[in-house]
Amino acid sequence: MDTDRRRSESLRPLRDAVITIVIILLAFAAFDDITTDNDTSFAFEYSGLVACGAWLLHQAIRLIRDRQIALGGVSLLALLAAIWGQGAVGPGTVPSADAHYLATVGAFGWFATLSIALLVRGWRSHPEVQAQPRG
After folding, report:
1. Do 60 and 77 touch, CB atoms closer than 8 A?
2. What's the confidence (pLDDT) of residue 19?
3. Mutual angle of helices 43-65 and 3-36, in 10-degree steps
4. Rounded to 5, what percent of the chain is helix, strand, coil?
5. Assigned fold of 3-127
6. Domain boundary assignment for the chain
7. In the predicted model, what is the mean pLDDT of residues 28-55?
8. Most buried in the list 74, 91, 120, 122, measured by CB within 10 Å?
9. Measured between alpha carbons, how far is 13 from 127 in angstroms, rounded to an integer?
10. Ramachandran assignment for 39, one of left (phi > 0), alpha (psi -120 to 50 degrees), beta (any other)
């Protein structure tokens, strides 16, 4: 495999990791606004959450297509858990051991972990990193 193609293939996980980290931060900001604000409508925040969910669904499907069945499957489950959990998260929600809250927090944790894994994978597969002598 030529160096340009390997570089391109190593950049995809790096790019996806950075985008996923940004998505997680945006979703967290939306949830924070929903739980701490007294607004009666959170149309902007919920629209943002839908967009975040679309990216995370895209990531899960891509992982499954790339034969990363475990990562993609857990990502789908985490996304479904977050969607389920989000239904009970609203104004005044506080940290608790409630299943809905834990499902939402667990999804944040999973996608943060996935982002780190993608960063490491992209970094390790980058041609310049592989060409460096070890020892």
Report:
1. no
2. 94
3. 150
4. 80, 0, 20
5. Four Helix Bundle (Hemerythrin (Met), subunit A) (1.20.120)
6. 3-127
7. 90
8. 122
9. 14
10. beta
